[in-house]
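Handoff note, outgoing to incoming analyst
You'll be picking up this chain. Sequence as last confirmed:
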Amino acid sequence: MPPAPAEGPPGTAPEPGGAPGEPGKRRRRRRRRRRGKGKGPVEGEAGGATPTETGDGEPEADDVGALAGGGTEAEEPDNGLEPMNEADEDDDESFPEEGTGAKKVMLIDGLHSEENRVAIVAEGNLDYYEVENQRKKAFKGNIYKAKVVNIAHAIEAAFVEFGGGRHGFMPLNEYCAGALMEHLGDWNEGDKRPPLRPGMEILVQVTKEESAIKGAAVTSYISIAGRYMVMMLGMKRYGISKKITGEKERERIRKQMEKLEYPDHLGFIVRTVGAARPLKDLKADLTNLLKLWDRTVEGARANKAPALLYEEQDIVIRTLRDNYSADVTEVLMNSEAAYRKASAFFDVYYPKQKAKLKMYRNKRPLFGKFNLEEQVERGTQRKVPLPSGGHIVIDRSEALWAIDVNSGRSSKDRDIEDTAFRTNGEAAAEVTRQLRLRDIGGLIVIDFIDMESKSHNKEVERILKEGLKRGKAKSDVTSLGKFGLVAVSRQRMGTSFYDILLKGCDLCGGTGVTPTQDAATVRLLRRLHDELSKDGREAGKEVSVRVAPGLLETLLNQKREDINRLEKLCGGKVAFHADPALSASSFQIENGAPK
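Most recent structure output, in case you need it:
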């Protein structure tokens, strides 16, 4: 195998898409196949806190995906971390390569200080996208020492002060006694759980960012993700990711985990990406996680609540940790800072694969080289086209998402049933892709075109469910009903770029509609009539009205006689003032609120 490049950014990256030559690895894989010791590939999803199960008959760790535990406290991997060594050519036992899907290229764009973006491209299509606003403080994944402020038994929840803008919301079923300061290190699953009371100090982890109207959601079932394992507080056994389905593979991992030693009050779950790793890599990852947890506990004992104890990694390390696999042929970046972080990550976990790291120095923008900007823009649009001429429309409400499927100009098929089946099949695949790219979570209702054939309905259901399995988020899907409706409950993995890149419309107040000019004019005249005729109003007193310029022009040109009639009828005066700061069709009477 060629040696890893020297520290520092290498030269200009070659044309993207080509896999770096690694003849040593290819020869090693051929030798393994000839020896017949390969175990077969595992699922291609690269790591990530996936839904897991904890062995035969043991409960699954549902919180792993939702918590999105992080890497280390520093911006770059800690120098004290033990290196993960790839399997040597002469190892007695071979391990399967991770990742078996289409070859991918990972792009890290850190050219602008306001935003960092990460994308994964598979065969020219945007397969993964995430953006991080550098000016917006993120809480999700962080661990805090918090104080219980109130217990609301009516909603079975506790409110905790952890240092955010609002108090954190913790359902009582998310209360782990092992996170109480008085029980750190001595409470195990199955022990009696003391009642939670105001004033108690407890470790919590943020699972959902706070919004404009709600505080952050938190849990005391702490989880911290390493590269190959996830540490879980309050669980005294090991577990294996559900995505590792081969029984022989699971049995091999069980035997490896039995050789490791870990505290009784901590549990560890092997991630999908860890299935291919030898025992020494799992042991090193376990050691790093224990060091990180020890530092977190020391910080909790040394600081008063509220205090930040553990900060989730930034987008560069987090993406490499959760999404890098052997399917990725190149990691291209255009930022020196991103390169340093990625290089430190590869030094710890993949020292022999550092040749995949490349600095991109071409004149053309990194995302433009792969024609991704248009695909990213489509990810924020309400209407998404389908290959055969149809489209889907994505709308967001307070409590759910609604996705409507339309055939549009699609007319290639023999009859309406074939047209509906083709459009629905394309829509099912595109919907799952959009859910993954936009990180849409919660309840999603999809309105497919009605179909008569039961086999067609079953096939559309299959496409939808298979597409949802490609992501790491847990989901639950109902059957396609007679009205063409399917409900999907999907876990939200992170902060959607809806909340990072977009904001509510100031013009329409988020409704998507504004009153017509006629409706706004009539509403203003009615308000004036009401204001001028109020009991106790001084006769002849002037009413001052600030009006948007466009609406004022309509009033003076078309409604002057109506205004004069109101003044004579009520014995008052009206003075209009143009205010460009007001949105179109809006007005404000004296000290009243804008209408």
